[in-house]
């Protein structure tokens, strides 16, 4: 266990407001909450999240833990990584990976989506197996629905027109609560209460992702082009 703690030294930074909170793998990481802050996006538009504070978080007096959640495009999966012990993530240690592709989403899945599989080669099985809602919590900037951009045709939800100049209309959705719009750099540019007519006239031309959040914790995501 001590060896793993020493592997969990890392650096982090804070560039965006989106955060993820994680609590789990109590045998190795103690009964404490880790906060990941979105530090940017990769070349595929996926968010990169690193724990704060920048100098790590104490783990049972055996060292400091700092982690990273990011998309592995080669293996098409989200990964939960620990620093290798040199204050960087140059050669990180894989702690968990999500076995579901989730390629349509710009943020990682919650612990109830797909399966976050424990990498026992690193943990020696001390994390208690795959992440579940019974042995961990993962909240914040995570998606909680398997519905992605590629699944839009399977639903009656529609956004139009697309491309759009001023107003996006939304039809076929119930219990919608709020909307977020992100640019392709992963930055949140609009956040407001849901309306069936969304004014995007203030946005510059380009491609955006519209996220509709519902009262029953579903998330529906659509790409659109602002003319």
Automatic annotation (TrEMBL):
Domain Secretion system C-terminal sorting residue range list: 159-220
The protein's name in its UniProt record: Secretion system C-terminal sorting domain-containing protein
**Signal recorded as keyword:** yes
**Which keywords fit this entry according to its UniProt record?**
Signal
Q: Which organism is it from?
A: Chryseobacterium glaciei
Signal peptide range in chain numbering? 1-17
User: What InterPro entries does the annotation carry?
Assistant: Secre_tail
């Amino acid at each position: 266990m001590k060896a793993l703690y020493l592997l969990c030294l890392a650096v982090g930074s804070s560039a965006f407001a989106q955060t993820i909170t994680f609590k789990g793998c109590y045998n190795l990481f103690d009964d404490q909450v880790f906060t990941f802050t979105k530090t940017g996006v990769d070349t595929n538009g996926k968010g990169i999240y690193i724990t704060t504070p920048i100098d790590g978080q104490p783990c049972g007096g055996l060292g400091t833990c700092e982690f990273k959640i990011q998309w592995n495009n080669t293996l098409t999966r989200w990964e939960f990584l620990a620093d290798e012990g040199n204050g960087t993530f140059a050669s990180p240690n894989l702690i968990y990976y999500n076995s579901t592709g989730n390629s349509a989403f710009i943020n990682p899945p919650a612990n109830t989506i797909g399966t976050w599989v424990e990498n026992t080669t690193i943990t020696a099985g001390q994390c208690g197996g795959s992440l579940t809602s019974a042995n961990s919590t993962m909240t914040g900037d995570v998606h909680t629905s398997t519905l992605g951009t590629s699944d839009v045709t399977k639903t009656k939800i529609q956004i139009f027109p697309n491309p759009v100049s001023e107003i996006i209309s939304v039809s076929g959705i119930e219990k919608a609560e709020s909307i977020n719009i992100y640019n392709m750099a992963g930055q949140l540019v609009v956040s407001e209460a849901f309306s069936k007519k969304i004014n995007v006239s203030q946005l510059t031309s380009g491609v955006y992702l519209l996220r509709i959040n519902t009262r029953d914790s579903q998330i529906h995501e659509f790409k659109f082009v602002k003319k």
